């Protein structure tokens, strides 16, 4: 694989990152277009330790240069970030590269922030592509500010690239398996009381469905895990030590909070007076009107009948048989069909989005979703099928989750 690769430039700096577990990333690179020398790599980050596949620095440089070739005539709006996805079978690697304009040493340059993975990790990476791109875009926003101020962008990038490496390593080591056997779950117990209190399981499953199927299960309090805020969907926090369930606000409010949080981060970065003064992760305090206590989790407010009935009925079936697995599959199919029906209903009522949606009361009655929790579960399923549904229904005017509850109660 080393044939045809140019020698590594002595000007390229490299950082080795100590990552716990197996990191699927081969390297991350920051490169830019030099008007005299062409594509140049400014910095390389690689995980420490033995890897199944190894790239030399020269090979990393060659691959990073590949992403900038042909970008000299790039024409894009100010602030635009172009995402490139390469699968180079001849090299056995995947390259995800974000192309953007930035200022280096007072000159405007075309830059690229890239991550390189083995091609064997394609199936692992694809489900994570969207969230990785969003994280890298926010890294670029921070980097642009640092470049605009004339500071060394590598200091900011290093603080952001390392957590992304750690995230991918954690996902590789501790991800939920694709196929889960029901016999390994509490749904196979003879009695729900053997594993956990029935109300706790009901609340956990219901909240998980209301937050678009995103949950974290830990043994510490929710105030310590606000970095969940970068997730594209709201998240449920389940504490199995003390049997509590908390959840983020619904999708439209979560998106609103997320954008304010990110703007607050960028604002704090812009206000720094020194290159060595990179603000801490709690920059959210700079905007005192926005959740100054950092607690973005709240109690599960919406009761439902869908999950309650499912749990009651599944434990009427004898454990150890495939019947419970079949019943679970049918329950998920039911939710999926209800979500499709809800989308069709809203499309018809709004002429496919040409006019605002004003008949929530009729929707709840016609689709048998008068219970708030049932409505939120089905809307969460529909949100994953048609992104932006919550914002379309609730954001004119914008409602917080507390206001939304009051509105729902009036219909």
UniProtKB/TrEMBL annotation:
GO terms for molecular function: guanyl-nucleotide exchange factor activity. PROSITE patterns: DENN_C9ORF72 (PS51835). GO terms for cellular component: autophagosome; endosome. Transmembrane segments: none annotated. It holds the Pfam family C9orf72-like. One of its GO terms (biological process) is endocytosis. Coiled coil: none annotated. This is CI072 protein. It comes from Dissostichus mawsoni.
């Amino acid at each position: 694989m080393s044939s045809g690769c140019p020698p590594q430039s002595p000007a390229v700096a490299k950082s080795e990152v100590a990552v716990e577990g197996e990191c699927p990333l081969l390297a991350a690179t920051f490169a830019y277009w030099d008007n005299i020398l062409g594509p140049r790599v400014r910095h390389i980050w690689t995980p420490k330790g033995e890897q199944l596949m190894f790239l030399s620095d020269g090979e990393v440089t060659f691959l990073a240069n590949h992403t900038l070739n042909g970008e000299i005539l790039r024409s894009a709006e100010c602030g635009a970030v172009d995402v490139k996805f390469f699968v180079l079978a001849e090299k056995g690697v995947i390259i995800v590269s974000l192309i953007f304009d930035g200022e280096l040493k007072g000159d405007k340059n075309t830059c690229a922030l890239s991550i390189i993975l083995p091609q064997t990790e394609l199936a692992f990476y694809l489900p994570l592509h969207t969230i990785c791109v969003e994280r890298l875009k926010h890294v670029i926003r921070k980097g642009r500010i640092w470049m605009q101020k004339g500071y060394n962008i590598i200091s900011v990038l290093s603080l952001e690239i390392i957590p992304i490496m750690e995230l991918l390593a954690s996902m590789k080591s501790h991800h939920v398996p694709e196929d889960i056997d029901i016999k390994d779950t509490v749904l196979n117990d003879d009695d729900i009381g053997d594993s956990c209190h029935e109300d706790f399981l009901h609340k956990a499953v219901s909240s998980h469905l209301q937050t678009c199927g995103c949950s974290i299960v830990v043994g510490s309090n929710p105030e310590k895990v606000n970095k969940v805020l970068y997730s594209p969907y709201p998240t449920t926090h389940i504490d199995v030590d003390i049997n509590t369930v908390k959840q983020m606000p619904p999708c439209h409010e979560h998106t609103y909070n997320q954008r304010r949080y990110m703007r607050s981060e960028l604002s704090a970065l812009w206000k720094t007076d020194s290159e060595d003064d990179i603000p801490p992760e709690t920059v959210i305090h700079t905007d005192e009107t926005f959740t100054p206590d950092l607690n973005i989790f709240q109690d599960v407010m919406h009761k439902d009948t869908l999950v309650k009935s499912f749990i009651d009925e599944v434990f009427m079936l004898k454990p150890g048989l495939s019947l419970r697995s079949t019943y679970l599959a049918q329950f998920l199919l039911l939710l999926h069909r209800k979500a499709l029906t809800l989308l069709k209903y809203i499309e018809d009522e709004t002429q496919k989005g040409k006019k605002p949606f004003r008949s929530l009361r009729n929707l709840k009655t016609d689709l048998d979703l008068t219970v708030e929790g049932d409505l939120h579960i089905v809307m969460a399923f529909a949100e994953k099928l048609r992104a932006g549904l919550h914002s379309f229904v609730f954001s004119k005017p914008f409602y917080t989750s507390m206001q939304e509850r009051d509105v729902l109660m009036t219909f």
